[in-house]
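Much of the work behind modern protein science is quiet bookkeeping, done one molecule at a time. The protein below has been through that process, and both of its lines are reproduced in full.
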Amino acid sequence: MEVKNTNSIASINFAEVKMSVDELEVFAALSYALEKLSDKEIELKFGATKDEIEGICEDVRETISIFQTKSQELAFT
């Protein structure tokens, strides 16, 4: 996932984000799994620890937060 561009028109913030459908689906599935499954179930289903899955989701959240920061900067310029 990559934030390509951000801009603001008439107080509305826009972002151009390059994200594959697979990335979006994986993020949604992993977020759901973290919410609904036990640590053991996560390891059995995904072959990764809960901490590893949380790390993947955090990477996506960080990219989104970069977008939010850029949008806020544009709003004040």
